[in-house]
Design a protein that fits this description.
- This protein has 9 helices and 13 strands.
- It has 314 residues and is an alpha/beta fold.
- The longest helix is centred in the C-terminal third of the chain and has 23 residues.
Amino acid sequence: MPPLPSAFLCYRRADEPFATALLGTALIDRLGERRVFLDTVSLDRGRPFEAKMVAAARRADVMLVVVGDAWDRGRNRERLDRDDDWVRTEILQAKDAGRRIVLVLVERDPGPIDLPAALDFLGDCETVALRRPDVPATVAGIADTITGTSPAAPPGGRLNPTTVERATLAMIGHVLPGRQQFGGNDEAVARAVADHLGPDEWLRFVGAGNSPGRPGGSGVVMVTDEQLRLVQLLPRRGHRFGVETGDATSRPLTRQTTLRDSRRRSSFRELVDVQVEAPGWEPLPVLGLFPEPAEILLEVAARASGRAEGEAEG
């Protein structure tokens, strides 16, 4: 039996982080964590990452380039033209090392991808599709393509809460404020998502916040491709920072919801605070985000709110 391959997941955080996390979770189950490179799982938080990213991209047998609808649109497309863009760098490093490159098309039809000249070769690469509603089966099929093996019992149906929770944990590393990733808070947020993500919803952003005026204090802001939702968390007894889902409640945030952002500098880094304000709820600050995840929250929330408004008017 040939040895199992290693895989590198290349993706745009402002495009399909949840699909990438789901796929990474499935590959870790099939190949083992040491053979799968997913940045939020494989890199130590707060440590220099550049050399490790380049080495992993060149070393992996297969690079999976996750391409969603926003991958080659707007600001994301502009980034592909820049030599300092990490998605571009990872792909070129894999090509230079002669590695197999597979495009994972997430909820988009096969067809032309808007590519800069330096990445034109991607148009000739293998492609696989990841689509709803039967995500477990399509993810397993992609894993089959990469590993050359088949699971004992092909999964089917909807994602189970354990899979959602594990994928959310893999996604949290770049969206949850750093100081809230410890003391079990990241696990509490992942449980909240698993408990409150609808069976046909797709997670676009998740962030945690704290508001002294709110009952219970803490909350999670979830953005899906359908709506914004706030999940109230309960404080963990005897723990200063920890939270637990307990009997947490979930409530869609309507088009009257507003998100206000303000930028500040801390320890020579630019940080963004985003305050979520919704009728009937105390304001919920999501503090200490780095600029990119803050932009994801604001942009995706604006799209979701705009879609909701259009449906209401229709």
